[in-house]
Write a structure and sequence with these properties.
Helix content: 40-55%
Number of helices: 4
Shape: globular
Distance between the termini: 29 Å
């Protein structure tokens, strides 16, 4: 597989879990602390960390530490499904653009 195919596979892996989809839905409302995310799920902190690592690895979410808090922000807001596989910047809306 080439790099583009690997990136696409990582995104599909991230989106294949219901908890990660719920995390994305929550982060649509803005940056959240990990403790706030945990309050909304019946999962442990290590499980949340695992889900966040997968979301960060495929660049759907960015996390940063602020003091003792771990804050997460959704990077990709929307993807045009008709042009998703081209991964062109014009097809992706981000908080950063």
């Amino acid at each position: 597989m080439d790099r583009k195919e690997t990136d696409i596979a990582l995104v599909f892996k991230a989106l294949s879990d219901v908890n990660r989809l719920k995390i994305i839905k929550i982060l649509e409302g803005g940056e959240q602390c990990a403790c706030r995310l945990l309050d909304k799920f019946n999962i442990t902190q290590p499980t949340l960390s695992h889900h966040m690592k997968i979301l960060c690895d495929c660049k759907l979410v960015n996390s940063r530490r602020e003091g003792k808090w771990m804050l997460s922000l959704l990077i990709i807001i929307s993807i045009n499904p008709f042009t998703f596989f081209s991964f062109s910047p014009a097809n992706i809306t981000t908080h950063l653009s």
